[in-house]
Amino acid sequence: MAKNIQKINLTSSNLSEEKLQELRQILPEVFAENKIDWDKLKTVLGSEIDPRIEKFGFTWAGKSNAIKSVIIPSGATLRLNEKKSVDFNKSENIFVEGDNLEVLKLLQKAYFEKIKVIYIDPPYNTGADFIYPDNFASPMNSYLEQTGQKDSDGNKLQTNKETNGRFHSDWLSMMYPRLKLAWNLLKDDGVIFVSIDDNEVHHLRMLLNETFGEENFIAQIIWENKEGGGGSDSKNFKIKHEYVLCFAKDAEKLQVLGAEVEDDSGYTNQDEFVKERGKYKLIKLNSFSIQYSGSLDYPIKAPDGSDIYPSEDGKRGCWRWSKKKYDWGLQSSFIVLKKNGDDKWTVYTKQYFKVDNECSQITRSLPPLAVVQEYSSTMATKQMEAIFGKKKIFDYSKPYPLIKKLIGFVSQKGSNDIVLDFFAGSATTGHAVLSLNQDDGGHRKFILVQLPELIDVKSEAYKAGYKTITEVGIDRLKRVIKGYADNPAIKDGFKLFELGISNYPENNFEFDPDKSQDENKKAFQQYLDKAKQGSLFEDINVIDVVYENIVKEGLSLNSKVDSKKLGKNTIFTVVDGERSLFVCLDKKVESETVKEFAGRDYKGRMFICIDNALDDSAKANLSLNLDLKTI
Predict the structure, then answer these.
(1) Domain total of the chain
(2) Which of 500, 529, 559 finishes a domain?
(3) Which helix (DSSP H) or strand (DSSP E) does residue 28 occupy?
């Protein structure tokens, strides 16, 4: 008898169900009849429950729907466009054309906690730019209408005018689910940078406090985007700057790399360890600025036998190091005890130039300044002109060296970090990653996501042959890779994917409001019957089905995909590091194929096929040796 045969995942992760499963594992006692018993949960949490009615919080009209939108799974898919890709077989860079909310949902499984840096340049909500009118009930229909792939009565990208009574609320509702999903993708030591101006910087800061935690705020970087005395006119001041908000996934684990290496001019002392540790300077061990702790208020024996305490002159203090750490420091020559001018003993730690307080080798650097002055909007305009050989192809692009600098704050030289930008625009972030890799020999990869927003027919870009913003971004990357002006060619490329409707009818069936419920049920059943007959994929590019399974089973978009004939069957093999799966989309999985797979050690590997392509005996044989999933 076949065992553990599951149906394939038709949608992206159900985040709500996953959270419930996590809670069920941690606190099974708070569930009754498969639902949360809120009274039991409050009892278990006890003092952690805040009983106050009035609480500090951040809310806006439409917030509850924005929160709900995060947990609605996506039934869409990503289709590979090999023709528009560059160096497809070698490059691991990804460009996705599609609505970023749907795409972020589809990336959840494969890229969960794998992204090191996120940079986004979202709409600033100035009253003249666009927002994404999310349709949570039917997201793919909304997307097809916005991009002209489906007839509509006008449901498309909307200009968010200040006269709109929900001007700020609509913008916040658009941003919230995208930031929440982005948080899931960041590594524990990852970071997000968000460009913004005065219109929404206050609200964005509060929104990031909520989605990332205010304790993970790193900096509000000022970017001087105007040259000389120029600036945007306001009633009282000339404005020549914008902001880049920086939040960490976990501030305790983030390492911000210094802009400059510190010299040792402030380190004036040396001892017998100078060769390996460098020179040192003395820092008092007692402190009055850290929170008092009794465990850090212990006596230290002076050379004359007297006790030294951290408090002094009536001020209560404590040591910066624990007793155990102090004992280690004393034995390791990190401690100096000496009398000061009033004949009292003072305890110092040695801060060496070449090692940290654990005696590990380090390079001391100065923290970078939270003001960036060297890159302007004018520079970005000139860069775009150099790339395209024409003026005004794309307005409001950021200078790519600015993005390089931001990435360089957290990405080590020569690293293979993944950088994500889901408001990719003209692909400035992709350009920055390519350039940074060329500078330091790194192997960073980018994932860019951009809606194929239509370009104004009166614009220079349209006159140059570009119909959508994604066409501008794709062509920019191709030109940068090929080399432009005095910039040499770059040995890299990218894979192009397009957001599309699912290959599975269960995800795409639309109930006709003009038909009765019974008629709709009958039509839906006909859809399912077609799938059971094995005719589901006759009019579909089978590689699209393979990639839909790659996405929804959580394998990387850079998985290696090969196909081979095994008798009458075509078998696709997908490999993503240590994970792999086999896909057969034929109407019948032949007995020779079953014998081949049942006779080998494929424990832990997945086999996907059409349900009625196997009889019960074949299912039993395959499920003994493979994780069998059926369509």
Answers:
(1) 4
(2) 500
(3) none
